[in-house]
Design a protein that fits this description.
Blueprint (H helix, E strand, L loop, with lengths): L21 H5 L8 H10 L1 H6 L4 H7 L2 H9 L1 H19 L4 H6 L7 E4 L15 H16 L3 E6 L7 E4 L5 E4 L11 E2 L1 E2 L2 E2 L1 E6 L2 E12 L2 E7 L7 H4 L10 H21 L6 E5 L6 H11 L4 H10 L1 E4 L10 E3 H15 L3 H8 L6 E3 H7 L3 E4 L2 H10 L14 E3 L6 H4 L2 H10 L21 H29 L3 H9 L10 E6 L15 H8 L6 E6 L7 H15 L7 E4 L4 H10 L2 E4 L11 H7 L3 E5 L4 H4 L5 E4 L8 H24 L9 H14 L5 H44 L4 E5 L12 E8 L8 E9 L11 E11 L2 E8 L7 E9 L14 E2 L1
Bound molecules: pyridoxal-5'-phosphate.
The site of pyridoxal-5'-phosphate (PLP) has 13 residues, from α8, α23 and α24.
Keywords: Allosteric enzyme, Pyridoxal phosphate
GO molecular function: glycogen phosphorylase activity; pyridoxal phosphate binding
Organism: Marinobacter salinus
Length: 850
């Protein structure tokens, strides 16, 4: 048979002069959070807009000339177009607020933010899940706040995979290439030529191209290797996000870390703070050390200078989320680079190895190469402190330098436009009050019927969306329309207004997507009660190499096809940001059942809450702080020491108890008004308590105050006088490390004592400092009450002991302290190395107790 070759031709229109700034709007990710801009494209040609999956650049290439011409003569359209443009211009012209300028003056400061994935919008598929969306939200909020900020990432031609679920419930992963001209990016030029950076790889040099994405006020630069200077294999290094093998991964990370710094350099950016978001980007530390060493600093001094200006954020306690490379792989991949850079392999390897180990952990590199570190919720902060505690071996985990900032979500991106219109009517100032909890009590003043009608409208849109998605899935799988109809009958029944529960996220096993099925008989009874039916909607991708994760998809798919459950369980394929926005704003309850304490933060529940959905979740991650007893439902995790199967059973029973005895009855407790007053009250509690605390502006301002501002200050101090302070600090640390094994302390005098509450006690400590002086250390007394009684205590009270005398080799420290508590109290004495130039008093990880 004769094969016919098809050639494709794309006839692109010319954008009429009256609409010429549409191009500009298509090239600024401002569209990813501004519904007005997206509305313009949708209005020109809705079916095409949906067909191109909300991609403005692709839309402008494919739209018919006559549609554009019509729009350019349509007065109503033109006036909307002008209104949107003037909003856009006003956004770009806005100056940063005083709280930003005070802490990070744009004239003298710049934050450089590195991440392996960025999730801005479904039209820009270079993200896989929570980490990417969070990075996108961070950039968007940085733009809103007018922060001096630049971001670095990688451009993956194929991004993450596209998921379908076949008739047997198997996940099928498909990759699709995206050409750069259909993405909201432009090639970066320098001196009239395309900017390229090169990075030494084993036996060759890899060249990366550079792309710029506009995100309102800020810029994101992306590197990719798809260029003819590279051999075929290297051209594919940036093909897929989290694809390939270990060697692909380490190569991608060299591009991101080392290449990323070279891009900033070539473009003459001078960051004063460096934020490494997850271990993937930690190699930037090496490249910055190399640069600093050119000025004559030792590796140790360069590391002090680099680390002082760096924040490292760790994002998961799950081992698979941390890159661990073998010594051989690191030696092979980095060898050429290190040799050319004059960096010593053993010293570099030590930064990434756990004590004595033969593997290299990117998280350890991130932590040792930074002086500021955080987890992403209160619970995760303490879990990470324990997990990474050996970096500060003598410091109790609760005191080591890992802090936390709880993740938040970008409200303009994830709040449904229907809610923002309602807020606009109620109180137009809401957009500038996102961090003000008192302000948000205004939600209570929205009339219940009005509040519920917005939710109901969004729920209906969600229902229609599910019908359409499911229809496509089942037609392709040959199961046809009748199945879709049966599956969605409950969901779209307006007279029943069925309770809908959503669960959508990556199918990683620790998220326990199937926990709710633990007692199937009981669940079936709850879901299929004809008077009070319940529908569960699931969606999510499992990593192509994660077969247990894919098995979960199959289990849910099979249950959804089960005759008695059909219509009560739905699973949708290809979860992305567009689907997230629909589901999160349309469901009544958002379910999350992670295995404590593995959900570092989670953010989808926050997105659901700001849209009025109620969270039903294990008290882990952000919900550990968000739940207040009246704004959703909580499952208390069982002790982690128990048998996992027993834990699952217990927590599943709590889940079904809540569902059967509280959630379903409350939802269906409708009087004549057609909705439940109790439900609306809870939903309002949720919206008003969560909106001002878990949004990305609050998160980014926390980063500014707690980390960016101090790191910028520390970095500048270290850099003074060609790194003199860094050099002194590095030498001091070496002196301390050498002396430390010979340092000892003992107490002198009373160990058990009594005194009247209004007098003072004297404490005396003798120390052998082994060559260090009293100025090199701190001696501290911590006091905690044995029994607090009615007395509130917030951690131990601290008293410093001063040097009293020197007796030969012995230094005596003393203090007179008033007993801070009435009655019995415990005193603990300790000594640790201290220097004014440290970023954190305990960063050396050394401490002796009596
Ligand atoms: C918010 C979001 C996530 C993160 O979900 P969590 O499981 O709550 O962390 C993942 N994917 C998409 C598309 C999202 O919008």
């Amino acid at each position: 048979m004769h094969e016919v070759t098809h050639f494709r031709l794309e006839a692109s229109p010319r954008v009429p002069e009256a609409l010429e700034r549409l191009d500009e709007l298509a090239n600024d990710l401002f569209y990813s959070w501004n519904h007005g801009v997206r509305g313009l494209f949708a209005r020109i040609d809705l079916p095409l807009w949906q067909k191109v999956e909300h991609n403005p650049k692709l839309f402008l290439r494919r739209v018919a000339q006559e549609r554009l011409d019509e729009a350019s003569e349509d007065r109503a359209f033109l006036s909307e177009y002008r209104r949107i443009l003037s909003n856009y211009d006003a956004y770009l012209e806005a100056e940063p607020g005083p709280e930003v300028v005070e802490k990070l003056d744009p004239d003298t400061s710049l934050v450089a933010y590195f991440c392996a994935e960025f999730g801005f919008h479904e039209s820009f598929p270079i993200y896989s899940g929570g980490l990417g969306i969070l990075a996108g939200d961070h950039c968007k909020a940085a733009s809103d706040l007018g922060l001096p900020f630049v971001a670095i990432g990688l451009l993956y031609q194929q991004g993450y995979f596209i998921q379908s679920i076949d008739p047997q419930g198997q996940q099928v992963a498909r990759y699709q290439s995206h050409s750069s001209d259909e993405l909201p990016i432009t090639p970066v030029e320098k001196d009239g030529e395309l900017l390229k950076v090169s990075i030494p790889f084993p036996g060759r040099t890899v060249v990366a191209r550079v792309w710029e994405a506009r995100v309102g006020h800020i810029r994101l630069y992306l590197l990719d290797t798809h260029t003819t200077e590279n051999n075929k294999e290297d051209q594919e290094l940036t093909l897929q996000l989290y694809g390939g093998d270990e060697s692909t991964r380490i190569s991608q990370e060299m591009l991101l870390g080392i290449g990323g710094i070279r891009v900033l350099d070539a473009l003459d950016f001078k960051p004063t703070v460096w934020h490494i978001n997850e271990g993937h980007a930690a190699f930037q530390i090496l490249e910055r050390c190399r640069q600093t060493m050119i000025n004559g600093l030792s590796f140790e001094a360069a590391l002090e200078a680099v680390a002082a200006a760096t924040l490292f954020t760790t994002h998961t306690p799950v081992p698979a989320g941390h890159d661990i490379f073998s010594r051989g792989l690191v030696h092979h991949a980095l060898g050429t680079y290190l040799k050319e850079s004059g960096l010593d392999f053993e010293k570099v390897f030590a930064l990434g190895s756990k004590t004595g180990g033969d593997t290299f952990n990117m998280t350890s590199l991130g932590l040792r190469g930074s002086r500021f570190h955080n987890g992403v919720s209160r619970i995760h902060g303490s879990v990470a402190s324990v997990m990474e505690g050996e970096i500060w071996p003598q410091i109790p985990a609760s005191e080591n330098p890992i802090g936390y900032i709880t993740n938040g979500v970008h409200v303009p991106t994830f709040l449904a436009p229907e809610w923002s219109s309602l807020f606009d009517i109620q109180t137009p100032a809401w957009k500038s009050e996102l961090r003000n909890p008192e302000f948000w009590t205004f939600v209570d003043s929205i009339p219940d019927y009005h509040y519920w009608s917005v939710h109901k409208a969004l729920k209906q849109q969600m229902g229609e969306f599910v019908v359409e998605q499911l229809g496509r899935q089942h037609v392709r799988n040959g199961t046809g329309h009748s199945v879709t109809e049966r599956m969605t009958r409950q969901l779209v029944s307006p007279e029943k207004d069925t309770l809908v529960i959503g669960f959508a996220r990556r199918f990683a096993t620790y998220k326990r997507a199937t926990l709710i099925f633990s007692d199937l008989e009981r669940l079936e009874r709850i879901l299929t009660n004809p008077d009070q039916p319940v529908v569960l909607v699931f969606a999510g991708k499992a990593h192509p190499k994660d077969s247990p994760g894919q098995q979960l998809i199959k289990v849910i798919h099979d249950l959804s096809m089960h005759p008695t459950l059909m219509g009560h369980i739905i699973i949708l394929e290809d979860y992305d940001q567009a689907m997230a926005r629909r589901l999160l704003s349309g469901v009544d309850v958002w379910l999350n059942t992670p295995e404590y304490p593995k959900e570092a933060s989670g953010t989808s529940g926050e997105k659901a809450a700001i849209n009025g959905a109620l969270n039903l979740s294990v008290l882990d991650g952000w919900w550990g702080e968000g739940y207040d007893g009246s704004n959703g439902w909580a499952i208390t995790p069982r002790d982690t020491g128990l048998d996992p199967e027993f834990r699952n059973e217990e927590e599943a029973r709590d889940l079904l108890d809540l569902l059967e005895f509280e959630i379903v009855p409350l939802y269906y407790d409708r009087a004549s008004q057609g909705y439940s007053k109790g439900w609306v009250e809870r939903s309002k509690n949720s919206m008003k308590s969560i909106m001002p605390r878990f949004n990305a502006q609050r998160m980014v301002m926390d980063y500014v105050e707690r980390y960016y501002c101090p790191a910028s200050g520390q970095g500048k101090k270290m850099a003074e006088a060609d790194g003199a302070v860094a050099t002194e600090l590095a030498e001091w640390k070496q002196r301390v490390r050498n002396a430390w094994p010979g340092v000892s302390i003992r107490v002198q005098g009373c160990v058990e004592c009594r005194c009247p509450f209004d007098e003072t006690v004297e404490l005396r400590v003798e120390a052998e400092l082994n060559g260090l002086t009293a100025d090199d250390v701190r001696v501290e007394c911590l006091v905690t009450p044995e029994c607090t009684g009615s007395h509130e205590s917030s951690g131990p009270d601290r008293f410093l002991l001063e040097q009293e005398e020197q007796r030969g080799e012995t230094t005596v420290f003393s203090a007179r302290i008033p007993p801070p508590y009435p009655g019995l109290q415990t005193l603990r004495l300790r000594l640790y190395p201290y220097n004014d130039s440290l970023s954190h008093p305990l960063e050396m990880g050394a401490m002796l107790w009596i």
